[in-house]
Amino acid sequence: MRARRSRRSRNSWLKVILVILVAVLAIAAIATVLVQIWEPAYVIYKRLSASSPHVYDEIKPEYAAIDPAQFISVQTPGDVEIVRDKLRTVIRDGRTGSADFVDLSAVLEIQTDELPTHNITALRSLVPVEAMRAFRFDFGAGILSYAVYLRPPKATGDIVVLQYGFAGEFQDGRVYVERLLAQGLSVIGLNQLAYGGNSIYHRLGAKIGGTPTNLHHEVEEIPGGIFPHVAQITWAISLAQHINEGGPVHLVGFSMGAYMVTLAAAIDSRPTVVSANSGIYPAYLRDRKQDAPVGVATHRGLLEIATHFDLMLLAGLGEGRHYMQAFNRYDRCCYSNTKARLYEPTLQSGIKALGLPGGFHVVIDESHGRHILSPLAAEALIETIQASRH
Questions:
Q1: pTM (two decimals)
Q2: What is the DSSP letter of 373?
Q3: Contact (Cβ atoms closer than 8 angstroms) between residue 110 and residue 135
Q4: Could you tell me the CA-to-CA distances from 53 to 48, 62, 135, 190 in Å, in that order?
Q5: Which of the 8 DSSP states describes residue 141?
């Protein structure tokens, strides 16, 4: 009798333990799902799991003690064109002719099914799109890149040139792109070299079988190695003006693309609104390994001429021009926190002090914890474009 009661007791405890275990697993599963699909939960998770409060929330006191103005060398209106010309010279690096950055002679329209992208299905499913056209840019030495033009049914006449970042293609920013299209903004999508079927290697001494050289990580070893990175953006601006017969052109860059559109806008006064998203901090604010610059952003020839602050300042100058930066505060990848607020007033004052037209502001997105082109950033761009029309 006692043995039976003992077995029943053990069975009861086993059932209780089993129920508790199932409940714990269920709660863990629900929490995991919430963290993955519900942004507020994901943000909380990232903040609690951060190695330091300075990753997302607190600003290191030493940063606030540093005056950003000391990193700006463009001090007078005369400096503007001097620095721009020097940047163009380094980027051109031996290429002849002043029209290199605007010439469309090496831009060829192709059929969309000739695009070497691996995400053609995702590209063709973007909506709303009334017309899609594809183009190939030939930089010589076997270096090619591709651009896709998307026009929505009710186009306003504005075209946004979108330069995406590493490890993806511009159609990966689907929510952002479709938000622009829905507002009547046409889009020319560009990918980094090595993505979307773009070239990544330059063969030095190709005629005699030279060694392939990486266009990102060995860019300083390649004569004119920066040029394809910048010219695919400036050629896309020329293409947009040709398609749109001189209508407004705007620039958007994401991640590494944020630096590239900032550099392109620093030497090219044609774009109206320039938006750099999740991708460019000055050197003293990069305290995470992921924030470290790569490729073109580390080129010594460029850094000797202009700091990243100089590039930001130049990118904000121009009649009707406005430069904005958007950061995802809880970005799981890089360029997180609100550190751009530290230098926002300095750049605004720097533009005003020059007495030249232009503008700059920072947008901080706290709605999610991803490294993405966010809906909030799209709305900020749309609002800035609308403001530029008045």
A1: 0.90
A2: -
A3: yes
A4: 9, 15, 46, 36
A5: T
